[in-house]
Amino acid sequence: MMRMKTKATALPTATHGRSASGGGGEPAAREWELRPGGMLVQKRNPDSDRISIPPPNIRVRVKYGSVYHEIHINPQATFGELKKMLTGPTGLHHQDQKLLYKDKARDSKAFLDMAGVKDKSKIVLIEDELSQEKRLLEMRKNAKMEKASKSISEISLEIDRLAGRVSALESIISKGGRVGEKDLVTLIELLMNQLLKLDAIMADGDVKLQRKLQVKRVQKYVETLDILKIKNSMPSNDGVQAQHRHTNGQKLAPIQEPQQSRHSGSDGVVVTTKWETFDSSPASVPVPSTSTSKANNSVQPKFPWEFFD
Question: Are 39 and 68 in contact (CB under 8 A)?
């Protein structure tokens, strides 16, 4: 009877063991994960974390210099979260902090409970000079980039203003007008000054791309002004514009050939502005002698002629 009762009581235990192992005699397989602290632990189930009650906070004593700071924190928090909580009491930036637990520096991503931190555990806080130097260098770099970006924005506004003047001069010259040579030269000098300002800016990353874009804009406008300068110095082939330029806005009257002739009152010679075109071998025209015309009008002279029989 005793043996049979023992077997009967042992049977549920075996059945329970089989059910716990998934219906077979082998134990269920477990999943493992590597925590940031370097420890290999069983993988946590997110659903079980939601259902389970979070553990109560613990008190840790953090020594900074000669002062102890008591912090209430969740044991499943990270050392990085503890550093952020110490920023207020210590006045030290969380990136400049180094936490030592059991004489070993702890990574900011490591968990307190995985490192063995418990209630009333003692942690030492020291200032990380190397991290502080890196952070200051990063801050200076960011401030420099911000200043460079602001300078490029101001130069861009000035280039936009000069671009409007370039467009106005281009419109005038393209329509055949003339502008002062000094205006073109002055505008080119202003653009070159902006180009020198851009070259003096040291930038990296996106700010460098912005500077390169503005440099290309300035070079484009300078090339446009060089072409306009050549066009502005060339003489115009338009006769109407040339006539307008020489007469200062007054129209020239058309040249008409006079139709009336002028007569000489004394000699009876006719003078006219109409010219006749003759052949290459014109016929000779006899010109009457003045002596003959005078002889006809005068008395015949008498000579002492002798007559002989």
Answer: no
